[in-house]
Design brief:
single chain; alpha/beta; 6 helices; 18% strand
């Protein structure tokens, strides 16, 4: 029993073949997400919508957490660009400004989910688990 608890607390190496790409321009928000996720999967960062497209094209990902408000190219436009090439990757939009029109625009552009900031860790994990059930928290 005790060893099971230790294993559950440690890094699960099986999850390390899962990659989540976080598109977030605010460093503190990125660091929070990275801290939550890094023990459970690989984490990539993009600071702008344009950088997201570049990182995704070069390295791929299993899921994208995409901020709506970003420099150079906002999250909705970046989402539309990714959907032109890939309709399967789960993309979860995130925003501190959870206006209904933003959520509707994200849904219309092909997002798979929406989380609000400040990040609720339980909701984040629940949302990610819908698309990546292989991640064990």
């Amino acid at each position: 029993m005790f060893t099971d608890n230790i294993k559950a607390m440690g890094t699960n190496e099986e999850n390390k073949n899962v990659t989540i790409l976080i598109a977030e321009d605010e460093e503190s928000n990125f660091l929070l997400l990275k801290t939550i996720l890094k023990r459970h999967c690989n984490v990539l960062q993009a600071r702008t919508g344009r950088e997201l497209l570049k990182v995704y094209a070069e390295q791929g990902a299993d899921l994208i957490l995409l901020d709506i408000k970003m420099p150079e190219m906002n999250g909705i436009d970046a989402l539309k660009e990714i959907r032109k090439q890939d309709t399967q990757i789960p993309i979860i939009m995130q925003s501190a400004y959870a206006f209904e029109n933003d959520m509707e625009a994200a849904r219309a552009a092909g997002s798979n989910g929406f989380i609000t900031k400040p990040i609720n860790i339980v909701e984040l994990k629940k949302t990610i688990s819908k698309f990546l059930p292989q991640i064990t928290w």
